[in-house]
Amino acid sequence: MVTRIEKITDETLEEAKKILFSGGVVAIPTETVYGLGGNAFDDDAVKHIFEIKGRPNDNPLIAHVHENYNLKKIIDYDPPYAKKLREAFLPGPLTLVYPSKGRVSPFVSCGLDTLAVRVPSHEGAQAFLRAVDIPVVAPSANLSRHVSPTSAEHVFDDFNGKIPLILDGGNCVGGIESTVCDVTGEVPVILRPGLVTREMIASVVGRCEVASAELKEGERAKSPGMLYKHYSPRCKTLLFPFDEADKARAAYFSEKEKGERAAVLCERSVAEKLCAEGIFVLDLGETEREMAARLYGLLREAEGVADVLIAIEPRKQDGVMAGVMNRLKKACSSRDIAH
Ligand code: TXA
Ligand code: MG
């Protein structure tokens, strides 16, 4: 199969719509990362997405809908505080997990009696979702465990020959996936941190909890996706705390001595110092939004230029940086990844 990258026009939207309604998969841009879009009502399309990603079949997908889609068609209960969250943050990088059973293909939620719903703000995504007017499942358009894609080229690198069309909506401004927030209980619970932070949610509805990444014995994960190794570049990775830049520097020179191609990924203030010492640096940037937007592109770049990626944690770790740290830790936690 030939994989084309096309700018978003009336013609390419029409083509994408045809592919979707004939059971195919189209990559779409969103403000967070690119997604692999499929018809949420079509069992075979949903199963096909799991197959081409190599995704474990107990990791549910998010249904994406346009701004004016009638939620009642796909969810069973809408707690009053969820409406407040939608009004404050949607369209945008916040996914809400509602009680829902039997509304879309059973393969979407992998047997859970909930459905994650997201309304992306990216204009191209909205145009596509308006055109099809159905819920579209769209996991991040990367091979399972690989780094999520923030450009059409990233998607092409993972799915060339496996999907017919990538709608090119430019580089994603958000850069890390949406915040996933469970609204099935009395209080919202963040299952995956992202650009809509705990503090932002609490400021709208009074309270917000964050699910622990560790499972207690006998407990079932509320968001199975968080259990898997994720976001990993295809090179060896080492991660150092912010105050251990010296150790990172030593690790860099020791790798160089072994003849390895090494690179250090760190925030701007640290990057400037290391660069002055002749160290090869991948500069995450300065502001938290910038670091979120640049993280995945740099992890993919590292694959091409380094055998060993030495990452130094950013100084700030709350707010948006909780999401960045979550991804960085996962990216550096394992070399056991799909090639
Ligand atoms: O920003 C995003 O959310 C991107 C773009 C493309 O929209 N999509 C994305 O999808 O990140 P994916 O499939 O890579 O991640 C979905 C996350 C996983 O951690 C999954 O476990 C969780 O959402 N999730 C999906 N449905 C759920 C459900 N019913 N209950 C709990 N967690 C759910
Ligand atoms: Mg993903």
How would you characterize the overall build of this protein?
With 339 residues, the chain is α/β, with parallel strands linked by helices. It has two domains: 4-210, DHBP synthase, CATH 3.90.870; 236-336, Threonylcarbamoyl-AMP synthase, C-terminal domain (Rossmann fold), CATH 3.40.50.11030. Helix content is 33%, strand content 18%. The protein contains ten helices and 15 strands. It has helices at residues 10-21, 43-53, 80-89, 123-132, 152-159, 198-205, 245-257, 268-276, 288-305, 320-331; strands at residues 4-7, 26-28, 35-39, 62-64, 94-99, 114-118, 136-137, 165-168, 179-182, 189-192, 209-210, 236-240, 262-266, 281-283, 308-312. An eleven-stranded mixed sheet has the order 1-8-2-3-7-4-6-5-9-10-11, sandwiched between helices. Strands 12-15-13-14 form a four-stranded parallel sheet, sandwiched between helices. A hairpin with a 6-residue loop joins strand 9 (179-182) and strand 10. Helix 1 (10-21) packs across helix 4 (123-132) and helix 9 packs parallel to helix 10. The radius of gyration is 20 Å and the shape is globular. The model is unreliable at 335-339 (pLDDT under 50). The structure holds threonylcarbamoyladenylate and magnesium ion (MG). Magnesium ion is lined by residues 139-140, 148.
